[in-house]
Design a protein that fits this description.
The structure holds two protein chains of two kinds. Chain A is built from one helix and 14 strands; from the N terminus they run αββββββββββββββ. By secondary structure, chain A is of the alpha+beta class. Classes of the chains: A alpha+beta, B mainly alpha.
Chain lengths: ~220, ~200
């Protein structure tokens, strides 16, 4: 019995010795695999390019002024107003964007930056573009009110022409034509849904770029 | 028998039984692991193969199709960009994409003006341009020098080295276990003969 035990324990010792002998080649092989994988990792695994945009709106002479026809933020019925809208794509990658312009009044809902919800005001124009990395896209936003309906003191610009395209049946009204606003929103292609979405999402948080211009409508004498 | 003796006698026996079981299982495990390693290697290699483009759902009208084809073209361009296509080549595709957007907008305007035939023709032309962008983007991806080849080589090296490591480890383990089993059997036979 004791001999049996001795032989079995010797067998176990042999096993341990053999495992020890094999340790070096096994670890070497593992290290070679890890090394080969890690050498190529920084080169082949590219950091995801995060979306990031900036928008701006300039007046008729491409300055932060001359947005209106009059000094009191008034726009004349039937007269064209010329603005410059710009989108900067600081990310180094190609992006597809859309600028949506909405006509609102003082009670229209604004975009919600926390929930990422766009304004509920009706869209009056949309401009789309594919941008190269680090490209700035600037376009004219030339607009004119073509038709107005007065219901008591409420003024409704029923037809607007933007960039040569007429938008009819607008139902936004304002008392005596005061406090209209054009809301601009930037929509981008969501990499997940492959569809246009308001703003964009980074790894940490979302961002919803928008801006608005208030104006009053004056009917020239 | 003292507690220490009992412990000494139990320990090698239980270890031995484990070793025997492992030896029995080793063939099946080895086969399974080899298959797993091969599948893993195939997966590594397949990461460099062209992936199918994202396609939107069924679209009915020509305008919707034009929009869907534009998106396909944009995604193809993004894939080309990710593959390392040069910026000047990408710029050409971007110009074409913007031409497609202009065509789609024009088709929309013609449609609102009541010129449905003109709108449809414009939209069809935009679809053709979008499709040519997809083809150009795929061709540009294939023509990217170096990077894609290096990706394939890297994938192959990882796959082959992982397979070799696993197979060598399995072979050595298998040999070790069989050697141990044979040694134990020989010793037991000798003990029985002596007794």
């Amino acid at each position: 019995m004791e001999r049996k035990l001795d032989s079995l324990s010797r067998g176990t010792d042999n096993l341990v010795d053999q495992i020890r002998d094999l340790k070096l080649p096994a670890v070497s092989l593992l290290l070679v695999t890890i090394l080969l994988s890690s050498l190529g990792y920084p080169y082949f695994v590219r950091a995801p390019t995060e979306q990031s945009f900036r928008i701006y709106l300039l007046g008729a002479i491409r300055t932060n002024d001359y947005y209106y026809h009059g000094s009191d933020s008034s726009v004349l019925f039937g007269k064209k107003a010329k603005w410059h809208f710009g989108v900067i794509n600081p990310s180094g990658s190609v992006q597809y964007v859309a600028v949506r312009a909405r006509l609102g009044n003082s009670s229209s809902s604004l975009p919600d930056p926390v929930k990422g919800i766009p304004s509920s005001a009706p869209i009056i124009a949309e401009f789309r573009r594919t941008l190269m990395g680090n490209e700035t896209w600037e376009f004219f936003f030339i607009w004119v009110i073509r038709d107005i309906r007065m219901t008591g003191e409420a003024m409704t610009p029923t037809t607007m022409e933007i960039d040569g395209v007429e938008t009819r049946n607008i139902k936004v009204s304002a008392l005596r034509g005061k406090n209209f606003r054009i809301i601009f929103e930037l929509w981008t292609m969501d990499p997940t849904t492959k569809d246009l979405a308001f703003g964009w999402k980074t790894q940490k948080e979302g961002s919803v770029p928008w801006l608005q211009m208030w104006f009053n409508v004056t009917i020239p004498n | 028998m003292t507690y220490a003796q009992q412990r000494q006698s139990k320990l090698p026996v239980s270890l031995d039984s484990v070793v025997k079981r492992l030896a029995r299982l080793s063939d099946k495990v080895m086969l399974f692991l080899i298959v797993a390693v091969l599948v893993f290697s195939a997966f590594l290699m397949s990461t460099t193969v062209d992936t199918p483009l994202w396609i939107t759902g069924q679209k009915s009208s020509v305008m919707d199709r034009a929009d869907a084809e534009f998106r396909r073209a944009f995604i193809a361009l993004k894939e080309a960009e990710a593959s390392g296509v040069e910026k000047d080549q990408l710029a050409k595709l971007v110009d074409q994409l913007n031409l497609v957007l202009w065509m789609i907008d024009r088709a929309g305007r013609l449609s609102t003006q009541g010129d449905l035939a003109g709108a449809a023709a414009q939209a069809e032309r935009s679809i053709e341009v979008s499709r040519s962008i997809v083809l150009d983007a795929v061709k540009m991806r294939q023509d990217v020098p170096g990077r894609l080849d290096l990706e394939k080589i890297h994938g192959a090296i990882i796959g082959v080295s992982a397979s070799l490591s696993m197979m060598t480890a399995l072979y050595l383990t298998n040999r070790l276990l069989r050697g141990h089993k044979a040694a134990n059997g020989k010793e037991v036979r000798q003990l029985i003969t002596r007794d």
